[in-house]
Protein: VOC family protein
Organism: Microbacterium candidum
Amino acid sequence: MPHGDITHIEIPVTDFAAAGAFYSALFGWQIAEAPGFEGYPMWQAPNKISGGAFTKREDGSTSPLSYVEVDSIDDTLAAARAAGGTVVAEKAPITDTSWWAVVADPDGNTLGLYEGMTTPPEG
């Protein structure tokens, strides 16, 4: 995906099963826990492009969080700071080939950052 595309949306919920039933009935989302991501039920829209996951609703995680794909989280964190934003969560690994972080704009809106690939390269 190109730099700047929204790639993933996390929705905080209190009950994974109830949320899965609701969103499946409402939008036809397919929901499953992928191997290695137990306790993080992921959803995929019927277009097979849009998707995300359910997270546990708790303090600090009460609104959906969109993740934007970037070429370099390190560069994007530096650019966010330089532009007046703040880093809410520093760069952390997802897999051996992917990372995430969270920034806030000057108004306090948060966006997740995603770099890499979660599936091994073919070859």
